[in-house]
Amino acid sequence: MNTPPYSKELQNHLAGRLLLAAEIPFSPGLLTEQIKLGHVSEIRGVQRENGRFACIRCGNKDSTLFYTFPCKICNLDCTYCRSCIMMGRVSECTPLYGWTGPPLSFSIPDKVMEWEGTLSAGQQTASDLVVKAIREKGEFLVWAVCGAGKTEVLFAGIEAGLLAGKRICIATPRTDVVLELAPRLKQAFPAVEVSALYGGSEDRHKATPLTVSTTHQLFRFSEAFDVIIIDEIDAFPYSMDQSLHYAVLTSKKPTAITIYLTATPSKHMQRSYRTGKLQAVTIPARYHRQPIPLPEMKWSGNWQKQFLQKKIPSEIQKWVRDRLEKKTPLLLFFPSIQVMEQVLPLFQELEPKLEAVHSQHPKRKERVQALRNGEVPGLLTTTILERGVTIERLEVAVIGSEHEVFSESALVQIAGRVGRSFAYPRGTVTFFHYGKSRAMLESIHHISMMNQEARKRGLLDA
């Protein structure tokens, strides 16, 4: 039986996606024609289920996140979803369009990978198991310490998946990770098209065999990917937002392979691994074969009270002065923007070039680069810099490490900023506190456990 004619341009734009009409740059007439031919599906974005509203795009069922208004389109009281409004309004009378015509296929050459780097023993073991996982089904965890080289561990698996005709997505909670990963993937896989998806990106309408995307952009996909690799699964907002888990679930095919990457898996995920419910591999050592520096806990008294009195606790002041004298780059982590900005002038009395950064800071990237370039001696920061920062010779201190914002995961990640390079694999991590927290003790145990496992497996140099 002949397949009715279909628009290849529309197929390329819509296959594996679920989009609003405003996101489809084709004429309404073409869309109507393709719906009649059975190539395009049309589904209401907000639906009632057992008297309750549900958003088909983001999975929201929270009644407080819907709003009913007199709609000029359907001339009825119409309800829309407030949870995903930033991606365009989805309401009861708003259709979402998907592709139901012939499946999209990509032309893949015989040779897709040009990367010629070498892997450490720990990386190679993980790489082989990632390849095996991508050839099978189900879920797989790569539990790798900070600085282990997780991205390179994926390359052989991505190669195997592409050669097998699989469409692959690497998803991460943060835009800056997408911007860092995309050039590396394009360099490693120059023969295949790679798209980078984030809010406002030029690639967001491209269909490619290899995609790197923020988890938020996955709301626009439906059963698109054969392999989905989720980087930094413990990072905010993915770790706290169930709608992002829904986005991952709906963006992959029912038969898809899911690979999780993290240095700090949740307690639930660790239990699943230890009881055999979740297949996993650990990389307990960094590629340079040196142990992760173990944090030191130092009591600093009532640091909050001393800051209010315009004083820097003596232990903290000594720590900062020592690094300034030795010209050692430093990061000082604070539990909140308010505390950090309150004390910045005190630290600038020690060194006027010290600066501060936080999530809303307009010059965050420039100031981190200035630290990397040696133009500033150090930064005061919130947990925004707990990940994604690699600076040679860096040493870090956490001020008020007992504060609830410093979870085990956050403290492990912060410690992971130190000793990341071959040239400078050592350095100090200091937790300044007014009483030890469980998270502090668990983070030190976590790092110690990984170092012990690395030694047992012969992954550390003597």
SSE topology sketch:
Layout: H1 8-14, H2 28-36, E1 40-44, E2 46-49, E3 52-55, E4 66-70, E5 77-81, E6 95-99, H3 121-134, E7 138-144, H4 150-163, E8 168-172, H5 175-188, E9 194-197, E10 210-214, E11 225-231, H6 242-251, E12 252-262, H7 267-274, E13 279-283, E14 296-299, H8 303-308, H9 314-325, E15 330-333, H10 337-350, E16 355-357, H11 364-372, E17 378-381, E18 395-399, H12 408-415, E19 429-433, H13 438-456
Parallel strand pairs: 7-12, 7-13, 8-10, 8-11, 9-10, 11-12, 14-19, 15-17, 15-18, 16-17, 18-19
Antiparallel strand pairs: 1-6, 2-3, 4-5
Provide an overview of this structure.
Helix 3 (121-134) packs parallel to helix 4 (150-163) and helix 12 (408-415) crosses helix 13. This protein has helices spanning 8-14, 28-36, 121-134, 150-163, 175-188, 242-251, 267-274, 303-308, 314-325, 337-350, 364-372, 408-415, 438-456, and strands spanning 40-44, 46-49, 52-55, 66-70, 77-81, 95-99, 138-144, 168-172, 194-197, 210-214, 225-231, 252-262, 279-283, 296-299, 330-333, 355-357, 378-381, 395-399, 429-433. With 462 residues, it is an alpha/beta fold. The longest helix has 19 residues, at 438-456. The mean pLDDT is 92.
Mean pLDDT: 92
Low-confidence stretches: none
Count of beta strands = 19
Question: Which structural category do the helix and sheet elements fall into?
Answer: alpha/beta
Give the spatial strand order of the biggest sheet. Answer: 9-10-8-11-12-7-13
Key phrases:
462 residues, alpha/beta, seven-stranded parallel β-sheet, six-stranded parallel β-sheet
